[in-house]
Write a structure and sequence with these properties.
Structural class: alpha+beta
Order of helices and strands: HHEHHHEEEEEHEEEE
Distance between the termini: 66 Å
Keywords: Membrane, Transmembrane, Transmembrane helix
Low-confidence stretches: none
Helix content: 40-55%
Shape: elongated
Number of helices: 6
Mean pLDDT: 83
Oligomer: single chain
Length: 198
């Protein structure tokens, strides 16, 4: 197996490395783990890296027919990828904020956005740091959704990041606002959102 790897050109090794990295990202995502640096870019950085590597390898083929076929397939995929990026940029504009533990280097990353159509839905995901530097674990399985009408503040104030309480040895975080009480249990990887209704 290793003798076959040595026979690959540098560009083919780059493509294999990118493919292995893509597989690693996919496996991590299915288990709820993410690279902290890639959370802001989503799949954009990985997709661009994969497409560039595929184009470079396509130019390395000796046979002109295979080279042109590979390039044509990649060019046909570009509009689909471009449409996906534009759609995500217009509809899903996530922002990120960090809440640090009172002591220690650990932190909670809050991913948030909102969508309005008469009433505003505020969506939140929570990530905690892991023992591996640069890797975060998603705490909640479902989006935390707080619905408001005529709210003029920002999403973080609505969540209650200005009133954060840490308890049970910094394993339970409570965000309090006039709209909801959100409790995050770091040990159990659970998020509870109790909406306050008038």
């Amino acid at each position: 197996m290793f003798s076959n790897i040595k026979k690959l050109s540098v560009m083919q090794k780059v493509l294999v490395t990118v493919i292995l990295f893509d597989i690693l990202i996919y496996i991590m995502k299915t288990k709820g783990y993410y690279f902290s640096l890639l959370m802001n870019t989503g799949n954009l950085a990985l997709t661009v890296l994969s497409v560039v590597a595929a184009f470079i390898v396509a130019f390395q083929f000796k046979s002109k027919a295979i080279k042109y076929a590979a390039i044509c397939v990649l060019i046909l995929c570009l509009p689909i990828l471009l449409f996906n990026f534009i759609l995500n940029a217009l509809l899903i504009d996530n922002s990120y904020s960090i809440v640090r533990y009172p002591s220690g280097p650990h932190k909670i990353t809050i991913e948030y956005r909102n969508a309005s159509l008469g009433e505003t839905h505020h969506f939140y995901n929570f990530y905690k740091t892991t023992a591996i530097p640069g890797v975060s674990k998603k705490i909640n399985t479902n989006l935390v959704n707080i619905m408001t009408r005529s709210y003029v503040g920002d999403d973080l104030t609505l969540l209650g990041t200005d009133d954060v309480r840490w308890s049970k040895g910094n394993n339970v975080i409570t965000f309090n606002s006039s709209y909801a009480t959100t409790i995050i249990n770091l040990k159990k990887d659970k998020v509870y959102a109790n909406l306050i209704t008038d």
